[in-house]
């Protein structure tokens, strides 16, 4: 009987440990969920940086929106503003003479850090002054 107790005790402890780790992954989503959240945070930061770039380019062109987001001497563009998972460029769309949006494909329900960001479309919408 003592031998059975000595055998069951470590098995029970290991089982409880595995259950705790498993429940932890269920509660917080595990490592892949954390990576998705980090990439989505990077996407939101990139959209804000691209918004700044559009504002800079428009400001240096008499408040006319650029046809594409690029870099200039007055508004240098960092090279790393691409989707962190796919490496693809973010989408820029001119909506009117003064309004535009910059979009990304998000992997999860990312928290909204900017009121101009629409989590359903994955787009940050903005305007320039006429």
Plain-language structure description:
By secondary structure, the protein is an alpha+beta fold. The chain contains two helices and four strands, in the order ααββββ. It has a domain of 90 residues. Strands 1-2-4-3 form a four-stranded antiparallel sheet, covered by helices on one side. The radius of gyration is 24 Å and the shape is elongated. 16% of the residues are buried.
Main features:
alpha+beta, 4-stranded antiparallel sheet, elongated, 4 strands, 130 residues
What is the succession of H and E elements? HHEEEE
Number of helices: 2
Helix content: 40-55%
Low-pLDDT residue spans? 20-28
Broad shape: elongated
Structural class of the helix and strand makeup? Answer: alpha+beta
Reported for the largest beta sheet, the result is: 4 strands, antiparallel
Oligomer: single chain
Round the mean pLDDT to the nearest integer and report it: 83
Describe the structure concisely.
With 130 residues, the protein is of the alpha+beta class. It contains two helices and four strands, in the order H-H-E-E-E-E.
Helix and strand arrangement:
Layout: H1 2-28, H2 30-59, E1 91-94, E2 99-103, E3 117-118, E4 123-127
Antiparallel strand pairs: 1-2, 2-4, 3-4
